[in-house]
Amino acid sequence: MDMQQAVVTVGSRGVGPADVLAVARGDARVELSAEALAEVARARGFIEDLAAKPDPVYGVSTGFGALAVRHISPELRAQLQRNIVRSHAAGTGPRVEREVVRALMFLRLKTIASGHTGVRPEVLQTMADVLNAGITPVVHEYGSLGCSGDLAPLSHCALTLLGEGDAEGSDGVVRPAAELLAAHGIAPVELREKEGLALLNGTDGMLGMLVMAAADLSRLLTGADITAALTLEALLGTDRVLAPELHAVRPHPGQAASAANMAKVLEGSGLTGHHQDDAPRVQDAYSVRCAPQVAGAGRDTLAHALLVAERELAAAVDNPVVLADGRVESNGNFHGAPVAYVLDFLAIACADLASIAERRTDRLLDRNRSHGLPAFLADDPGVDSGLMIAQYTQAALVSELKRLAVPASADSIPSSAMQEDHVSMGWSAARKLRTAVDNLTRVIAIELYAAARALELRAAAGGMPAPASLAVLEAARAAGVAGAGPDRFLSPDLAAAEAFVRGGGLVRAAETVTGRLA
Fold first, then answer.
1. Where are the residues linked by the 5-imidazolinone (Ala-Gly) cross-link (predicted)?
2. Is residue 196 within a helix (H) or strand (E), and if so which, with residue range?
3. Are 243 and 273 a contacting pair, CB within 8 Å?
4. What are 33-51's pLDDT values in tens digits?
5. pTM above 0.70, yes or no
6. Within this chain, do residues 187 and 216 fall inside the same structural domain, yes or no?
7. Nearest alpha-carbon partner for 429 in 338, 332, 298
8. Last residue of some domain: 174, 202, 230?
9. What is the per-residue pLDDT across 126-185, written as a single tens digit (0 to 9) for each?
């Protein structure tokens, strides 16, 4: 089914990563199951019962955060819920990407559909209607501490439900939210007890970004295995280090998967194993020989991050939470630490994978270590600079990735008059991971560009690259990635290589020969 026509049905038991991607990136329609609407209505009944009683209940009949000590009388409670949305919509800085906002809205809808938040069914339906209309609230880069949820980003989304603030229509034009709702026949929500708070109190932004980064990294890890194999081949390295029995004695599953990928790409190569010919070496350099160990560690890190994401996707993150027996209890499930930690962990993996790829590229360009390749892979070294500055660009990206690997979750700034005295900074961890994934894509693209040129030079000298390598070279050229030759305007070539990697062309090309890669 075309993802543009896909439908995601949300029940009361959570959603999966594919659902998030379908809605955030594929504009899939959202439908609410009868079961979810029934659970939501049931939980709402508990809230209305509590609202009718004189006892103070956090989020229902009290203020918020450090102001929770004040009991709010019934006639002020609708104003209380409106006010929390308006006051918390305090983001600043550049706009957040459309896919992130759609993931944010969808995941908040998912939590409300769980029946643990006490929101009325009509609010849930309005959220689905806004998503299906292609209305995207304007959300800003800065404003979330990742505790009490992604408060400012979610508040900007909730503001749209009220018909306030600005949002982007399906045509990409930003207009007042009230106009967009009216154009689609959507009535603004009038909030009641607990509802304003329930719309704001979750880890939805950081979780959505984790799910999307994980999908991108899965493809990049496979791409990195392919480029590592191309570089090994271009350096006349040995593929004996990829033997399954070597990796079985250190049984990390990611390592075995990366080694198997590289072995598949190199099958049938006439270049591997010639490391003893011109400048004898007992073994290849670490950046070549240890490629499966480093990329494999990234794979295992990603597997752990996906486990955390799946648990969070099955969660109902709110405070207070409505339990099955009708109790409404305060809790700390909104704290973003579990998600923040793995977001930071993945940024470390991105930095190290980029670092080893850059070292391989530099080896390809250095005539003292490249085993017969011309300096900087230039057509006429001295007259031509070849890929000298492409490696500078790659090094700059790697340096930035190392800075992005500094964990955000190790920081905490107290807020709300010390009531919220420890925060996760998970939103910040997610934002920098998105940048890290983008930079890693570019680093892998530059290694691809260099390895492809090196293999062409080997082939011109009579060597025979592996069939999978030749398939990658052919597809890259068809995608606008230029081959060996005199110096040329390099930036467009690198942009074409980046698009080839980012769009999955690299992996698809190799798989035409290897079959499915891990």
1. 147-149
2. helix 195-200
3. no
4. 999 999 999 999 999 998 8
5. yes
6. no
7. 338
8. 202
9. 999 999 999 999 999 999 999 888 999 999 999 999 999 999 999 999 999 999 999 999
| Residue at token pair 């062309």 | 505
CATH of the domain at 145: 1.10.275.10
In this structure, the answer to whether residues 289 and 362 fall within a common structural domain is yes
Length of the chain as a residue count: 518
Q: Which of 58, 286, 392, 449 is flagged as catalytic?
A: 58
| Rounded Cα–Cα distance for residues 193 and 452 (Å) | 62
Helix/strand number for the chain, H first, E second:
19, 9
Contact between residue 315 and residue 121 where contact means Cβ atoms under 8 Å apart:
no
Q: Rounded to an integer, what distance in angstroms lies between the CA atom of residue 254 and that of residue 256? A: 5
Give the separation between CA 161 and CA 84, rounded to whole angstroms: 13
Residue 335 placed within a domain: no
Distance CA 472, CA 58 (A): 59
Q: What is the DSSP letter of 154?
A: H
Question: Is residue 62 located within the same domain as residue 171?
Answer: yes
Q: Is residue 58 flagged as an active site residue?
A: yes
Residues 6+ apart with CB under 8 A from 342: 210, 301, 304, 305, 308, 309
From 202, 237, 252, the end of a domain falls on: 202
Question: Cα separation of 471 and 269, whole Å?
Answer: 12
Q: Could you give the 3-state DSSP secondary structure of residue 422?
A: coil
